[in-house]
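hiii so um. not sure if this is the right channel but i have a protein structure encoded as tokens and i wanna go backwards to a sequence. like what aa goes where. can anyone help
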């Protein structure tokens, strides 16, 4: 059974996630590409050692387990190629280091995942790169911030914690005319619902840890590039010595097989839960791009085919003890930093601390919710009881 065929373009994303990157004919018929654990690969002859044919030659530079994941993600993202990293943050660092050098300037969305800011402020600046942050809602007005040193724009849409959708088309139009690289963190929507490369971005990065792996049991990162940037991305990846463990590649590949199915459920369930929360006493505001109340809902509808699992809510202001009473008594929701698994999470957050371009000063405690795959009514019951504890405290 050949897993690639000539009518690729006609294939649905569901078919791509279930078939692409699998080559049973090369693995004794096994459906899943096995874990190729190894550092040393031996060559039987001098000719084979010195061959320049594409092949696997050393553990760090790839193996069938990593190739399977790369192939699948490249196809999903419509990328020229994909490279793997031990975490999403490593993939983000790689993408930034691929396009930037000493003396360059990078513009990063103010709503970026906080560790993206930390690597930029703490490492890129030491390399002589100027790092500036922009209003995630800037769109075409971002032009005012561009200088002749600006070499990259880093987009995360929607933003971590606060979920602003960025006008990627407007940003790409500015960047393309000036040869500026556009990097997009697409972890929330995944390629099932959003395809930044098709909209003109240059590099897409993922916290594969989240939805690709999908079971909260592995750290993983990916970076995929268009034709213009893939060679440079691959070269930088190789020189930096980044790679993902074959065991983690296996788990990511296995997670990917159900990505389309899981995303459809996460989208429907998170949207349902968010809409329900909008009517609950004690909830001041729900921030979910798929709700008509979201300020960027029109952009969401233009550029996304579905929603991620994660959104935020703001509560009516109350003392910390009320918040503790609320979250300490959860039966189903867990409190944890990550997301993307089958289990629901609800985490108190303080996005205002990391902002520098536009202040985030909404009153009241804020919570980030990852909608897992439990029964929706059970989740509503757990949240209703939690909100009752909050109001009573
Ligand atoms: C978690 C996350 C990352 C980083 O991924 P790790 O695998 O934890 O390093 C990057 N971007 C977003 C949006 C994330 O949520």
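sure thing!! here u go:
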């Amino acid at each position: 059974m050949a897993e690639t065929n000539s009518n690729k373009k006609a294939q649905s994303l569901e078919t791509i996630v279930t078939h692409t990157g699998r080559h049973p004919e090369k693995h004794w018929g096994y459906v899943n590409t096995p874990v190729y654990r190894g550092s040393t690969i031996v060559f039987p002859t001098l000719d084979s050692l010195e061959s320049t044919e594409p092949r696997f030659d050393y553990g760090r530079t790839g193996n069938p387990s990593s190739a399977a994941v790369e192939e699948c993600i490249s196809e999903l993202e419509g990328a020229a190629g994909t490279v793997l990293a031990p975490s999403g943050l490593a993939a983000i660092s790689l993408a930034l280091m691929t396009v930037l050098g000493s003396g360059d300037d990078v513009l990063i969305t103010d709503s970026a995942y906080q560790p993206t800011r930390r690597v930029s402020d703490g490492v890129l600046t030491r390399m002589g790169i100027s790092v500036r942050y922009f209003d995630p809602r800037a769109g075409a007005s971002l032009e005012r911030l561009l200088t002749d040193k600006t070499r990259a724009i880093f987009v995360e849409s929607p933003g971590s914690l606060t979920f602003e959708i960025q006008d990627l088309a407007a940003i790409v139009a500015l960047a393309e005319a000036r040869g500026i690289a556009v990097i997009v963190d697409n972890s929330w929507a995944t390629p099932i619902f959003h395809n930044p490369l098709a909209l003109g971005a240059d590099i897409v990065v993922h916290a594969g840890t989240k939805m690709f792996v999908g079971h909260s049991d592995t750290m993983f990162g990916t970076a995929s590039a268009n034709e213009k940037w893939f060679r440079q991305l691959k070269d930088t990846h190789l020189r930096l010595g980044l790679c993902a463990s074959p065991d983690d590649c296996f788990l990511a590949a296995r997670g990917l097989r159900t990505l389309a199915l899981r995303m459809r459920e996460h989208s429907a369930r998170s949207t349902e839960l968010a809409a329900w929360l909008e009517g609950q006493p004690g909830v001041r505001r729900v921030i979910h791009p798929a709700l008509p109340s979201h300020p960027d809902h029109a952009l969401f509808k233009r550029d996304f085919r579905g929603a991620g699992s994660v959104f935020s809510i703001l509560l009516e202001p109350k003392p910390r003890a009320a918040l503790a009473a609320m979250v300490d008594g959860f039966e189903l929701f867990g409190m944890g930093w990550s997301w993307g698994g089958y289990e629901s999470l609800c985490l108190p957050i303080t996005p205002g601390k990391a902002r520098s371009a536009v202040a985030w000063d909404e009153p009241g405690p804020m919570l980030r919710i990852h909608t897992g795959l439990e029964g929706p009514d059970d989740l509503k019951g757990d949240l209703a009881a939690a909100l009752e504890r909050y109001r009573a405290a």
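oh and The radius of gyration is 22 Å.
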